[in-house]
Amino acid sequence: MSIRTKTIAIGVDLGGTNLRAVAINADGQIIERITYPTQAQEGPNVVIKNIVASVRTLLAKIALEDIKIIGVGIGAPGPLNSETGVVIKAPNLPGWENIHLRDIVAKELQLPVRIENDANVAAFAEYWKGAGQNSKVMICLTLGTGVGGGIIIDGNIFRGSHFIGAELGHITIKYDGLRCSCGNKGCLEAYVSATGIVARTIMAIRSGATTILTDMVDNDLNTLTSELVYQAAVNNDSLAQSIMHETGTLLGIGITSLANIFNPDFVIIGGGVSKAGDMILTPARQEVQKRAMPGIAEHLKILPAMLGEDAGAIGAAGIILYNETAKISD
Ligand SMILES: [Zn+2]
User: Fold this and answer.
1) How far is it, in rounded angstroms, from Cα 75 to Cα 97?
2) Which of 179, 295, 306, 321 has the fewest CB atoms in 10 Å of its CB?
3) Domain annotation for the chain: domains and CATH numbers
């Protein structure tokens, strides 16, 4: 066994419902993984206990002889200061304000710990071991309930001057558009997130569009999901197809702004909505081709993410391993 395969890091993805923890070797391979309930409603102390317990449970599953654990990376929601290790605020974790997450976990586990924003670690994972490898500038958009963003430049996570940067879901694509969860109008997130897709579909149905979706949800639009809109589109429903096509077009408008600023090699699209694949990526690419400054689109690849739901945990371990592996030789 080489020194590389003996060196591992732990990555923890702190979600609102579940914690996902993985053990990864220096080649980026997952050795072991577990999920653990977050119990977010119980407050920060219980959540932190669960983080520590998840890592201990994970380590108990690994044969530890000859293995060196170089640290624990935690991807956490909300604005957080990765230098001081403090979570400033986590909107979906009740009671999380100015929590010294890094130091508390490091003391409990007696291991070096780093914390990083969850969207940033998901982006870093795609740069390190996923669809954006070998890029100089890579942008990641995660289309889920909201829209998360991450920017990796020369292998470094771009955070902004106060750790709040790369909120790419909140770039404006329509000046007087739909209201967004952030309070602004016309944000990318209000249109291309799962929530945005459902909202636009319901508006179209209420203004008289006919669709198989009303039967699919038994006339209860409260149960409509973006997944069902996608399935209806696959089944040639014309409203669902036009909603999905429009989602791609609007995504392309957002990507154009990012591409004009950053001139990236890759824009990687992840999250549940990205399962629609070329149904949204083709119109997005066409829109960027039409709108971007000369030279931008030719060098840009818009690709689906590769790492799926493990991206956050892989990236959290990756921020520990990436710099270390440069020092390790076989
Ligand atoms: Zn917004």
Assistant:
1) 16
2) 295
3) 3-125+309-327 (3.30.420.40), 134-305 (3.30.420.40)
Q: Where are the beta strands (DSSP E) in 126-283?
A: 137-143, 147-153, 156-157, 266-270
Q: Which residues of the chain have pLDDT under 50?
A: 329-330
Per-residue pLDDT, 229: 98
The C-alpha angle 311, 181, 225, rounded to 5 degrees, equals 65
pLDDT of the residue at 5: 60
Q: Which helix (H) or strand (E) holds 283?
A: helix 278-291
DSSP code per residue over 46-77: HHHHHHHHHHHHHHHTS--TT-EEEEEEEEES
Q: How far is the CA of 171 from the centre of ligand 1 (A)?
A: 7
21-45 residues labelled b (16+ CB within 10 A) or e (exposed): bbbbbbebeeebbbbbebebeeebe
Q: What is the pLDDT of residues 59-109, one digit of tens each?
A: 999 977 788 999 999 999 988 999 999 999 887 899 999 999 999 999 999
Q: At residue 291, what is the residue type?
A: R
Ligand 1 center to 180 CA (angstroms): 5
Calculate how far, in angstroms, residue 294's C-alpha sits from the geometric centre of ligand 1: 29
**CA pair distance 16, 217, nearest whole angstrom:** 27
In angstroms, the CA 216 to CA 236 distance is: 14
- Ligand 1: centre distance to CA 190 (Å): 7
Q: How many CB atoms lie within 10 A of CB 158?
A: 17
Centre of ligand 1 from the C-alpha of residue 69, in Å:
39
Report whether 250 contacts 281 (CB < 8 A).
no
